[in-house]
Amino acid sequence: MNEAVQSRFQILALSGGGFRGLYTAKLLADFEDEISAPIATRFDLIAGTSIGGIIALALALEVPASRIVALLTEYGEEIFKRRWSLAGIWRAPFSSRRLADLLSGSEMFGARVLGACRHRAVIPAINYSTGRPQIFKTPHHINFKRDHKFRIVDIAMATSAAPAYFSRYTFNNNQFVDGGLYANAPGLLAVHEAQYSLLRSAAEIHVMAIGTMSSKFTVDPRRNREGGTYDWGGINPSNMPKRLFGLSISVQEALSDFMLAHLLPGRYVLVDDDLTDQRSRAVGLDKADHAAREVLLGAASERSKICIGSRDVEPYLRHLAPPATFFYGENANTPSCRVASITARVRATAPSR
């Protein structure tokens, strides 16, 4: 089930954050320019949630990060174009149709399925039909037999269906909601995947997490403290779920950072920038105008320059990940006889019910 033991197993974890993912994409584009290769060739596993999930899927296909930068820069305002929604009461203020159309283009995902990915990826979402978390995975384990058949566009739309911003996304007769509600910073999920599906020890694992210049949501002490709609959202009721979603993903970022630093001492790097008071006014999950683009692209350019010269980041860019083993799909590289043998061993060692 596991590949040959190696001394270093690298994970790239990409956070969600709506249009702020332009920051992530620009950082990665600069890294690719520096190494003159797809960034996915440096990582053994890529995890991404929401916009981070869309970027992760693109990287796993070896779509250049610069192409994602161009897509968000050119079409961001179309993706986040407000529609009539009765202040968010009747329906979400943004339609996901334009994003789906863009991701379905031949230069992005087209009609390709998850099994077309050249690198391992894990993408969290919420299956609202079952009420359970769902993690879409490339077929890098003998038991991962179904996800590789799903269209990448469907997985991308499922992980990025942010509540209060976009409508739920339906495919395979199930409704999905943004995975950011429970795993906006997916580094811990990826570490678990490396340990339990790929049998890597904690000592081998190194994680680079890239944030999205997330705002820290804090209380205004002058506001109503009664916990009602006005307290959380002000006079516009649609602001309440948005603020709760923002608080949730902000706290998750902080918790994941804290736990990964403890779990992987000296083997974890977070690449992100704090928003100043002035810049935070220009940036948001649904802000895609010129000011937002300027802040995100400018901050990413400065941060990438620092990272490329950093002793902490340099080993991540130097590492060459060996080809991944895939058991199913168009990139399957495991002989059928070995698959049968492994399947038999798994069944023999499975606990009885």
UniProtKB/TrEMBL annotation:
<keyword id="KW-0378">Hydrolase</keyword>
<keyword id="KW-0443">Lipid metabolism</keyword>
<dbReference type="InterPro" id="IPR002641">
    <property type="entry name" value="PNPLA_dom"/>
</dbReference>
<feature type="short sequence motif" description="GXGXXG">
    <location>
        <begin position="16"/>
        <end position="21"/>
    </location>
</feature>
<feature type="short sequence motif" description="DGA/G">
    <location>
        <begin position="178"/>
        <end position="180"/>
    </location>
</feature>
<feature type="domain" description="PNPLA">
    <location>
        <begin position="12"/>
        <end position="191"/>
    </location>
</feature>
<dbReference type="InterPro" id="IPR016035">
    <property type="entry name" value="Acyl_Trfase/lysoPLipase"/>
</dbReference>
<dbReference type="Pfam" id="PF01734">
    <property type="entry name" value="Patatin"/>
</dbReference>
<keyword id="KW-0442">Lipid degradation</keyword>
<dbReference type="InterPro" id="IPR047156">
    <property type="entry name" value="Teg/CotR/CapV-like"/>
</dbReference>
<feature type="active site" description="Nucleophile">
    <location>
        <position position="50"/>
    </location>
</feature>
<dbReference type="GO" id="GO:0016042">
    <property type="term" value="P:lipid catabolic process"/>
</dbReference>
<protein>
    <submittedName>
        <fullName>Patatin</fullName>
    </submittedName>
</protein>
<feature type="active site" description="Proton acceptor">
    <location>
        <position position="178"/>
    </location>
</feature>
<feature type="short sequence motif" description="GXSXG">
    <location>
        <begin position="48"/>
        <end position="52"/>
    </location>
</feature>
<dbReference type="GO" id="GO:0016787">
    <property type="term" value="F:hydrolase activity"/>
</dbReference>
